[in-house]
Each structure stands twice: as structure tokens, then as C-alpha cells.
Task: inverse folding
């Protein structure tokens, strides 16, 4: 019940916003609309949580599927049901890659950082995702410069494959050094 409730609330809030201001008078989208999907499959079907009448308002689905580990590998928690639904509904997927709690030190090792970038880029390309979203509650001060290098390297790699990079941040986070690299 918890997964369905959380996903339902996120979708309802997003769709309410989209219905009121998602399109300009000429019918063109004003800004891309990202719908974030919380961890775990819902108790209801994806079709019920994102009815067809709202799908045209959604630019990207951003499921929380991947975790970057300390060795640069990825923990894959992707949901085949959501992938199937999104592709059948013509929705673009741009999953979130988050840094596991306490594992941000991988950024300080250039070889491990590059391994993480390669793994993310390979996953995005192999799965046909539109891009990647990086979610990390602000890097520790000692990691800030390394995080900027990580974002720059990942942006270069994804953009070379014509994919997007977005960042999930909290209001007030210092984005100097990284904001200009994201789409």
C-alpha cells in the first residue's frame, strides 16, 4: 500500500501542476515535465497511476532505480513492468542514479569515478534511456570538487551519445561548478 500511495501522491501533484500550466496557449510544452517515481512497484497498475489522458503532459519518467556503489559499480533495481508500460505508452525514461549513503568517497579516486561514469553511460545506452538523473544530497565539502569532475565527465559521455543529464537537488544547494553541465 505504501508504494502505491507515495507514487499516487507524486503523480497526482505533478499532474495537477501539468493540467494548469504544462502547456502554452499554442499547445507547446512550456517546460519539460519530469515525473519522479518512488522506489518499488505500486500495488495498482502503472496504467491506473498514470491515466492515458495525462501522458501527453509528461516529458520524462524518472524512476529511482540505480545506486552507485563505492567501487563504481551499479546496483540495478529497475522495474521491467514500468519499462514495458513506458515504452508501450510512448513515455521517455530517464532513471535516477543515486549515491549510496556513505559511499561518496568513490569520487576521490579518478579510476573508480571513471568506472562509475562508464557504467552509467553504458546502462543508459544499452537500455535506450533518454539520459540519466543524478541524485545526491549535497556532496560533503571534501567531495565537492570531485563531484563537479564526476558531473563534467558524465555530461561529456552522455552528450556524446546524444543523451541528457539532469541533477536532483534540494532548494538552496550550491550548484556552482555543476549546473552549467546539466541539461
Result:
Amino acid at each position: 500500500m505504501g508504494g502505491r500511495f507515495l507514487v499516487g501522491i507524486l503523480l497526482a501533484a505533478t499532474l495537477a501542476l501539468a493540467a494548469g500550466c504544462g502547456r502554452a496557449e499554442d499547445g507547446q510544452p512550456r517546460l519539460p515535465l519530469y515525473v519522479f517515481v518512488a522506489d518499488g512497484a505500486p500495488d495498482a497498475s502503472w496504467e491506473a497511476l498514470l491515466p492515458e489522458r495525462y501522458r501527453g503532459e509528461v516529458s520524462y519518467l524518472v524512476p529511482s532505480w540505480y545506486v552507485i556503489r563505492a567501487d563504481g559499480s551499479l546496483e540495478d533495481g529497475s522495474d521491467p513492468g514500468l519499462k514495458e508500460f513506458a515504452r508501450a505508452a510512448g513515455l521517455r525514461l530517464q532513471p535516477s542514479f543515486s549515491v549510496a549513503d556513505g559511499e561518496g568517497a568513490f569520487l576521490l579516486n579518478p579510476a573508480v569515478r571513471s568506472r562509475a561514469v562508464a557504467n552509467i553511460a553504458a546502462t543508459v545506452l544499452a537500455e535506450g534511456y533518454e539520459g540519466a538523473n543524478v541524485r545526491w544530497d549535497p556532496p560533503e565539502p571534501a567531495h565537492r570538487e570531485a563531484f563537479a569532475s564526476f558531473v563534467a565527465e558524465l555530461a561529456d559521455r552522455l552528450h556524446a551519445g546524444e543523451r541528457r543529464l539532469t541533477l536532483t537537488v534540494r532548494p538552496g544547494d550550491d550548484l556552482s561548478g555543476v549546473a552549467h553541465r546539466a541539461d
About this structure: Confidence is low (pLDDT under 50) at residues 1-22. The beta strands are 34-37, 60-68, 74-76, 96-99, 131-135, 164-168.
